[in-house]
What we know:
Layout: H1 12-19, E1 26-28, E2 53-60, E3 63-70, H2 81-99, E4 105-109, H3 120-137, E5 143-147, H4 156-163, E6 166-169, H5 180-187, H6 197-204, H7 206-211, E7 217-218, H8 223-235, H9 247-256, H10 265-271
Parallel strand pairs: 3-4, 4-5, 5-6, 6-7
Antiparallel strand pairs: 1-2, 2-3
Helix pairs in contact: 2-3, 3-4
Protein name: Malonate decarboxylase beta subunit
Pfam families: Carboxyl_trans
Domain CoA carboxyltransferase N-terminal: 1-242
Amino acid sequence: MRNDRSFIELKARERxxxxxxxxxxxxxxxPFEEIMSPWLAPQGIVPQSDDxxxxxxxxxxxxxxxxxxxxxxxxxxxxxxxxxxxxxAALELAADDNRNNxxxxxxxxxxxxxxxxxxxxxxxxxxxxxxxxxxxxxxxTPVVGIITGTVGCFGGMSIAAALCSYLIVTPEARLGLNGxxxxxxxxxxxxxxxxxxxxxxxxxxxxxxxxxxLVDTLIGDGINAVKSxxxxxxxxxxxAQHRSDKYADFLARLNRFDTHQQADSTQIKRFFARREE
Length: 277
């Protein structure tokens, strides 16, 4: 694989392969195991043999690692019972490895719209398990989240991203609790026009999230840039304080925010400026 290729253009399996050391990739519960959601076919939806979730073990810089990559092109990267269980179990096993003196790093490639609506509470329960597993694992090793493509990271999985030790994004990435269509549906098009791409990226895009201090690193989309940022994050070790532990500060900022006027990227960058941290 040419390392100057766009990381965004890679499929989930290719992303995991690109991040792990050459020759170390070993997929767990791969497509030939045919572990897939049982809830899609009865609703007329063609399932995918790996359920859109790629879990790979290997090494990063000769150290044991698990890389979990979500396929954004399958069901919008949405999380169901099976895909969520695969991710949660992999993180739980990585935590067990660390408790058993087998240092195991973790990297998450997040391209997801959140819970799969067809699986409702089953998907939500799986995402809750993922949250708990990240919080458990990050005590031992950095959990690095990477968001690169235009699918972005939304819903309950945006909370998973926020729980990561470090977050890496590209300008093309998006990160938000609710997706544009959901906000428009609930609040109206005058509040949030989901077709206004400059506006959407100005609110939830990678650049504004970086300038707001909600992610740690903003990079280009080349494979080398992604790997370099990942290596730097892993080398930093476990943060003295995780971003999610600073909730009191973020709540205080939100309480000062004037919701009577439409937010824009300039206002958001100024309000959440890193100098306030």
